[in-house]
Write a structure and sequence with these properties.
By secondary structure, the protein is mainly β. 10% of the residues lie in helices and 42% in strands. It folds into three domains: 78-128, no CATH class; 138-179, no CATH class; 184-336, Jelly Rolls (Sandwich), CATH 2.60.120.200.
Length: 337
Amino acid sequence: MRLLALITAATAALSWLTAGCARYGFPDDADPCEGIDCSGHGRCAVADEGPWCACDAGYHNDGPLGCVRDDAGLCGSDADCPAFACLGGACTQGRCALQPLPDGTACDDGDPCTERDACTSGACRGSPLDCDDGEPCTLDVCQAGICDHAALPDGATCDDGSFCTRDDACEDGACRGTPFDCGAVDIGDPASEDGHDVLGWSEVWTWGGTYGGGDDGTLRCVVPRAPGCQSDDAEAFFSLFSDGPVAELWLRHLDGQQDDSYEIGLRDSSSTAGWTALALVDRIDEVCSGSECWYTERFDLAGRQGRLDFRIRASIDPIPDWCETWGVNAFSWARLQ
């Protein structure tokens, strides 16, 4: 009879446990307490509510699956309270609380690729380590506190820092561009004009031989923006470049039998001032004494450098018949000196 009673009790307990596991979504052969260590201060048990922690003496439940000390958080002074990188422990009315340390307090964020670590609003933050080697054709990264500079693939676009090269590309870890004559342009020569943003001009003319008292090769005329060839209707642009300071702009101009006066403006890429007046050239047949001739006008640039944009604009009404056929002012070349 005693053996039968034990078998009956064991069968009932097994049925209760199996039903409990099924009730809480556990497979029949699963242990509901698997992986629950009760914070190392108790043992897991199963009740109608599911798994829970039976805590050791001196500990109590912190939620159903954890155990904490009965006196946790109690303190007599700040020294009894834990502190972290940017959070200091403070004892207030017998309880520990965390308070942010003052911003700027030195700390260690644990990242070897940061420097100058300091507290900010209770968190430790550092500035990324500067691994820039100044080479545009390397990929600069920090790994475990060490800067690595891997070469970019050949052909990757870059900037070699020179105004007088173009089509810059990486080659064997170095940035190289194709040099071009950036400080001079033959106005009217398409090969020379490339890269100088020559805009607002007529088609190319070749007036050589004795025209204008000499052979100046190709040239262009400033073309009106509107019919009628009135003043301020015509303007043209070109750009020159220099990697170092330049003293003057030299501009070759045809002084003809009509009013060839013009204004020249300058826009310096290193300034935010926009267009500024460089000079007003007042030419009413005063150079060539009744005929046509070429002359070179010089303009002071006061050591400017980089990209220099120039604008030429008619300043006085020209002869309509001539203007409507050819344009306003004729120019042959420009260069920085």
